[in-house]
Amino acid sequence: MANVVIIGGGLAGSLLAIFLARRGIFVEVYESRSDLRKTKVDAGRSINLALSDRGIAALKRVGMDDYMLAKAVPMRGRMIHLPDGATTLLPYSGRTGEYINSVSRSGLNAALISEAEKYAEIRFFFNERCIGADFETATVEFASGRKINAETIIAADGAGSAIREALKAAIPEMKTEQNFLDHGYKELHIPPADGPNKFLLEPNALHIWPRHQFMMIALPNFDGSFTCTLFIAHKGNPSFSSLNDEQSLIEFFQQEFSDALKLMPTLVKDFFNNPTGELGTLRCNPWHLDGRALLIGDAAHAMVPFYGQGMNCAFEDVCVLDSLIEKYGFDWTKVFSEFEQLRMPQASAIQQMAEENFYEMRDATADPVFRRKRELETLLEQKYPDYFSKYSMVTFREELPFTRARDLGNAQDRLLMEICKNITSISELNIDEVYQRIKSLKAEN
After folding, report:
1. In CATH, what number does 3-42+105-178+280-358 get?
2. I want to staple 295 with a disulfide (CB 3.0 to 4.6 A). Which of 161, 253, 287, 383 is the partner?
3. pLDDT tens digits, one per residue of 50-109
4. Quick one: three-class SS letters along the chain?
């Protein structure tokens, strides 16, 4: 009988445990944190996640899609908040039923752990922080002093993966690259209202306050509150370093986010008590050591959160890994090798798009040309069943590789932006002619 040790009991690790157990594999999951079902999640570390079709497809395969969607809030588009207080909704898709879902990270993780514990093949060990591994002796060491035998290790222990560091020591030619944005993030909060209408903002939207050099977003929660995130530079003016007291913070929000400020009674407390997070992209090569160890999810390809695909991509990793076990059985060398070949280009593509989408959200969403382009894309999706914007290809077509979504999507974006630069209203356009130009573009790409 096969045995696998998973380092990391977060979203990817707990979902992977379920997939492996369903194939009769005995799994031990070692998680550095306490059992989050029994302890309160640290303030400032509960940023919501955007669950979309790729992630939903993975949950469906283990029968958890309906359960999680029942606890999610649909977001049908981006609600843009301009400095003068005006708002504009930019739909994610022109098709009915295509939207993303705001879900609680901790709630989803807790649900996955509880589901995993229903399997006799799975055991969780909490408060066990991995500090290293020796692949020659097949042992893993933890900060607690525990040492375990682990002939097959799958690391789902995030961007700071200890197993990845051990692989670097075991594979001298391994390359690792980490690129951080000049910006960091701070989690803030809008509470629910009293009374039947719990939401103080439109609930079925992802709210964005784009301000070119910085931005704030807000995602709805099931209880009527919103989880807000301020993205701003670490240094400069304005920056986290310049917002160093209550007066500077309030003045900044009055000037830039006045409509949100009146909804945030705990702003000062949240800002100065919650940690400041880093925003980075991690690339490494290789992801595996023959059949002994494999990196998945953020441990292999951490990305900035601006396409909302970090979790969805990690869940897709799990599905691909499961399909390769179906193909090769427990020949881990073949499974891990082909997994890397299949997933590395896809991870690289969505990492690139996530970085680009930061600047789109921060800058372009306030640009009239960009807003015309989104309006045009919505009309094209409403009229032509075979047209998909880049966002729709990434988010609503789980069968389409990220590489294809990137390449075709970028070509479409260039064409539509050029068209929209030369008009003041999309009513000036012949939509059929635009569609024919896109069809020609698809043939070329």
Report:
1. 3.50.50.60
2. 287
3. 999 999 999 999 999 999 999 999 999 999 999 999 999 999 999 989 999 999 999 999
4. CCEEEEECCCHHHHHHHHHHHHCCCEEEEECCCCCCCCCCCCCCCCCCEEECHHHHHHHHHCCCHHHHHCCCEEECEEEEECCCCCEEEEECCCCCCCCEEEECHHHHHHHHHHHHCCCCCEEEECCCCEEEEECCCCEEEECCCCEEECCCEEECCCCCCHHHHHHHHHCCCCEEEEEEEEEEEEEEEECCCCCCCCCCCCCCCEEEEECCCCEEEEEECCCCCEEEEEEEECCCCCCCCCCCCHHHHHHHHHHHCHHHHCCCCCHHHHHHHCCEEEEEEEEEECCEECCCEEECCHHHHCCCCCCCCHHHHHHHHHHHHHHHHHHHCCCHHHHHHHHHHHHHHHHHHHHHHHHHHHHHHHCHHHCHHHHHHHHHHHHHHHHCCCCCCHHHHHHHCCCCCHHHHHHHHHHHHHHHHHHHHCCCCHHHCCHHHHHHHHHHHHHHC
What percentage of the chain reaches a pLDDT higher than 70? 98
Expressed in angstroms, the distance from the first to the final Cα of the chain is 46
Cis preceding linkage at 83, omega within 30: no
The better pLDDT of the pair 47, 274 is held by: 274
What confidence tens digit (pLDDT) does each residue in 31-59 have? Answer: 999 999 998 766 555 568 999 999 999 99
Is it the case that residue 154 has pLDDT exceeding 70?
yes
Burial class of 202 by CB neighbour count within 10 A (0 to 12, 13 to 18, 19+): middle
- Which tokens is 47 given? 């940023």
| Nearest-10 crossing angle of helices 431-444, 368-383 | 90
Q: Are 411 and 403 in contact (CB under 8 A)?
A: no
122 with 21: CB under 8 angstroms? yes
Q: Are 173 and 163 in contact (CB under 8 A)?
A: no
Amino acid of residue 170: A
d(CA 185, CA 69) in angstroms, rounded, equals: 27
Check residue 103 and give its pLDDT: 95
Residue type, 285: N
